[in-house]
Write a structure and sequence with these properties.
Blueprint (H helix, E strand, L loop, with lengths): L2 H23 L4 H28 L2 H15 L10 H21 L3 H24 L39 H20 L14 H19 L19 H10 L3 E10 L5 E5 H6 L1 H4 L1 H4 L9 E3 L5 E6 L22 E9 L5 H18 L3 E7 L10 H11 L4 E4 L2 H7 L5 E6 L2 E7 L7 H8 L7 E13 L2 E13 L6 E7 L3 H4 L15 E8 L16 E3 L5 E9 L1
Parallel strand pairs: 5-6, 6-7
Antiparallel strand pairs: 1-2, 1-3, 1-4, 5-8, 8-9, 10-11, 10-13, 11-12, 13-15, 14-15
Helix pairs in contact: 1-2, 2-4, 2-6, 3-4, 4-5, 4-7, 5-6
């Protein structure tokens, strides 16, 4: 969905409300002709505020983190607000939804329109200034206008406004344009406040009761989505049911497209020529004189004017945090079977009780099922200020009985994976089976295993012969011929078997002990399980982790491998 289709849907809702609530509650027919545009704007702004707030209610911490970006990256003078972003974000969410509901119901007229205007003015300032930072290099003061440069999207301090949480991302210019339109609409509503259509009469306490009810309800709902538990709806690439490896590889396929326009100046005549990288690639001969032409002394006549280079982003590409789940972290999430991933922000401030419960679950899982546990964290306080954090990490592990390994990651990454510190993920071959807030952990591993851990089923058994070994990055590719199908239905004569680093049990039969390289001409018996969840949403991705993606687009994950 784009902001344009969203506006279309909100407009349809506003039209329906205009011809139901607006006309239905109108007591004077002469108001119909003069007030219809006003009522449409009233319901449009109200519905948009409710929707915008609702997608934030399910993830209040996401809004808080975005406000932290605004206060630290965009307006460093307000960095003192960072410790208060959670209550501030919660206040903004509640205010947004309640104002939207009050606009639709026509309650608190002057207060509602005044606060709506001030809120939109605040957002317009933030998003407008954020867009202008595209002209301001990172180390340049906004007041030093003489040092501003041509617009460069990479200079923009906050790439996404967070206006609709993680449900929908907007470009900075789209955000700014949206906020200008809404600000103008709220000005119109403020001027015409007395003519807003209302549902509950001014007499009595109906309006006060309604506003109070929605304020309490939205506040409680927000708290349940971060303080007492995880978001009810997860729009991030780390949602349950998604495979981290597949999401990462799909993101890697979505590369940005940037048009760079260079300016060349003839040092003899002063003539300037502009040419972009696309023209240089497609019409090389035509523009080759710019870098080939030289004077009598052998010096280039055309000089590049670096300060005039312009950059235009034609396609932004994927900027998801899932791209940061790289080789340094792959051991923690790409195991063939089940595994636990513990995620925490600042270990010094994380729930110790939560870590103790997770440690007990981890110990029981290792003993009963051989399920490994890994941890990903952002920061731990250097207690003795010696610059060495390893002793602090070891002391933390000893205190809480966490026997698993810890890998450090980016702050935004760990906060994106799960809105809890600590939080627990149950993974199977990189797929997120279940996520738990530290306040909602299962009482025992037995309870967890009964609900979420299943014994693998064998749907396909093949006898293969390795023909070629194709390593690439953190994955090992084996091109195999199919000698025999012992179980299941498989029509291919050849296939690509992919196994990721860290799966030693799977790789051991396929690798040379001395060189750590794949060995060809070995005969294998491979058991596989069909898993539709692993089928990539992008057809350009032709493989899956620890398994086979056949020519029909079916995903088969490895259950076991043995040499014949």
């Amino acid at each position: 969905m784009t902001v344009y289709t969203l506006f279309l849907y909100i407009g349809i809702v506003a039209l329906v409300l205009t011809f139901t609530l607006g006309l239905g509650l109108s007591k004077k027919r002469e108001f119909v002709r003069t007030h219809l545009p006003l009522w449409f704007v009233q319901y449009f702004v109200g519905a948009l505020l409710v929707f915008s707030g609702a997608v934030k209610v399910v993830d209040p911490l996401g809004t808080a983190y975005k406000m932290a970006d605004y206060f630290t990256l965009l307006l460093p003078v307000l960095s003192f607000m960072k410790p208060f972003v959670v209550p501030f974000g919660l206040l903004m969410i509640v205010l947004e939804v309640v104002l939207g509901i009050n606009l639709i119901l026509g309650h608190g007229k002057k207060w509602t329109t005044s606060l709506s205007f001030l809120m939109m003015l605040f957002f317009t300032f933030l998003t407008g200034y954020n867009y202008l930072t595209g002209y301001i290099p990172q180390d340049v003061s906004p007041f030093a206008t003489g040092q501003w440069v041509a617009f460069n999207e990479n200079n923009i301090r906050v790439s996404d406004c967070g206006c609709f949480g993680d449900f929908m991302k907007l470009l900075p210019i789209e955000t700014f344009g949206k906020d200008i339109i809404l600000t103008l609409m709220t000005v119109f509503l403020y001027i015409k406040t007395e003519n807003l259509q209302y549902v509950i009469p001014e007499q009595g306490k109906g309006r006060l009761i309604s506003t109070s009810f929605w304020t309490v309800a939205i506040t409680v709902a927000s708290l349940f989505n971060f303080y007492f538990g995880l978001p009810w709806v997860d729009f991030r690439p780390f949602a349950e049911g998604r495979n981290i490896v597949v999401e990462r590889e799909i993101c890697a396929l979505d590369q940005p497209e940037v048009l760079l326009t260079y300016t060349y100046k003839n040092k003899n005549t002063g003539e300037e020529v502009k040419v972009n990288n696309k023209q240089m690639s497609e019409e090389t001969e035509k523009y080759s004189y710019l870098w080939k032409t030289k004077d009598a002394d052998g010096n280039k006549i055309w000089e590049t004017q670096n300060d005039k280079t312009e950059e235009e982003v034609l396609k932004k590409g994927c900027d998801s945090k899932v791209a940061e789940m790289d080789a340094s972290k792959q051991h923690s999430f790409a195991s063939q079977g089940y595994s636990f991933l513990v995620v925490a922000d600042d270990l010094s401030k994380s729930s110790k009780e939560g870590f103790k419960k997770i440690a007990a679950l981890s110990l029981a899982a290792e003993k009963q099922k051989g399920i490994p546990t890994h941890a990903l964290y952002y920061y731990i306080k250097d207690a003795d200020a010696d610059g060495d954090y390893s002793d602090d990490l070891e002391a933390f592990r000893q205190e809480l009985g966490t026997a698993f390994d810890f890998t450090q990651g980016d702050e935004k990454l760990v906060k994106t994976i799960i809105r809890s510190s600590p939080g627990l993920l149950l993974l199977h071959n990189g797929t997120i089976v279940k996520k738990w807030h530290h306040r909602q952990l299962p009482g025992s591993f037995e309870e967890l295993a009964e609900a979420y851990i299943q014994e693998p089923t064998v749907d396909l058994e093949l006898e293969l012969a390795i023909q070629d070994y194709m390593p690439e990055g953190t994955k090992h590719g084996f091109f195999c011929s199919v000698d025999k199908v012992n179980q299941g239905d498989f029509g291919q004569q050849e296939l690509d078997l992919v196994i990721l680093d860290g799966n030693d049990a799977l790789l051991r039969p396929l690798m040379d002990e001395n060189t750590d390289l794949g060995v060809t001409e070995r005969k294998l018996k491979v058991k596989l399980s069909k898993n539709p969840q692993l089928v990539p949403s992008n057809p350009n991705l032709k493989w899956i982790p620890n398994g086979i993606l056949d020519q029909k687009g079916q995903a088969w994950e490895i259950v076991s491998i043995e040499l014949k």
